[in-house]
Amino acid sequence: MYGELPTRSFILIAALLGLGIVLPLLLPEYFLYLGNMLMMYAVLAIGLDLLLGWSGQFAFAHIAFFGIGIYGTALLHTRLRIPFVIGMPVAAGLAGLTGWLLAIPSTRLRTVYLALATYAFAECAQWVFRTWDGVTGGSDGLRIKPPSVLGHVAGTDPAAFPVVAVVLCLMLVATLYLTRSNLGRHLCAIRDSEHVAAASGVDVKRVKIVAFALSAIYAGVAGGTYTLFQSFVNPDVLGVGQLILVLTMVVVGGPGSIIGVLLGVVLIGLLPEALRAAPRGLLVWQEFLYGLILMLAVMFMPRGLWGLIEAQLSVRRAPAKQAVSAAIGTSGPLDLKGTGR
């Protein structure tokens, strides 16, 4: 789990990057739009998983940081003519700074109190997005100009697809290194037991604050990628429905696992498409289904789908391991007498 990254991780990320370059030449635009959305949600969900799955903090301000990333990147480009390669990191840094400031008082809270406090902050942020007409456009929304990334003009799904893929690959590499570092160990220790972690020398409060800030940066980066393929944003996309969606992706896929989160993003992200193919009128129950799936996953799959898959694989591997152990145990030590050595 810790230490150097396995070679297969780099191979898979390189394959994802290759698909990001090739698929725009092969797929229709609507499928590329779905791909952009899934990759954006992957960055957003991985950031939430750093708090929820890795450090065990039930904080629900993630969508507020996502909004800061969207509006920050768009406004820097529209008002100040700052290019995407500078504006997106600045907006993500602003989201991280906001998360750091929120974490200072919030780390004194736990469980449901932390959830309520951070959710209240998310609601306050949405109120600001909705009422600050002079900056965010208020309820009328904000028009997003097509950004230019090192001379490559995005703004459409085919043009944005390779850039979004690059952003996702960079965030995946950063996450893999992060979860294998000392900070990753400290996050897991806090998740398992704050008292044991503190007794082991972990600065619990500092690590929590760092986790909040990093999670907010991921949300800000996801918000920046949103501006690559969308031409308009309004506060309606930053409400509680979006929070439930991302939370469902993490919990259903498997908290504390990058593969599990990616699995949840694909399954839950494509659910609306499955509902469109279902009998007419079922799509209006979309948010109800998200809540139902989330509730069932918490009750019957606490480790998510990926945890269930890993459990099944370990059960299947157990007889083979027992057979090998029995064979080694019955064969005894190798007798080299009479071999001439």
Plain-language structure description:
With 341 residues, this protein is mostly helical. It has 2 domains: 7-237, no CATH class; 239-328, no CATH class. It contains 15 helices and 4 strands. It has helices at 7-22, 29-54, 62-80, 84-106, 111-131, 133-136, 157-179, 182-192, 194-199, 204-229, 240-253, 258-269, 271-277, 286-300, 304-331; strands at 142-143, 148-149, 152-153, 232-233. The chain has a two-stranded antiparallel ribbon with strand order 1-4. A hairpin with a 2-residue loop joins β2 and β3. α2 packs parallel to α7 and α11 runs parallel beside α15. The longest helix is centred in the C-terminal third of the chain and has 28 residues, at 304-331. The chain is globular. Residues 330-341 have low confidence and may be disordered.
Task: Give keywords.
341 residues, mainly alpha, 2 domains, two-stranded antiparallel ribbon, 15 helices, globular
Briefly characterize the structure.
By secondary structure, this protein is an all-alpha fold. It contains 15 helices and four strands.
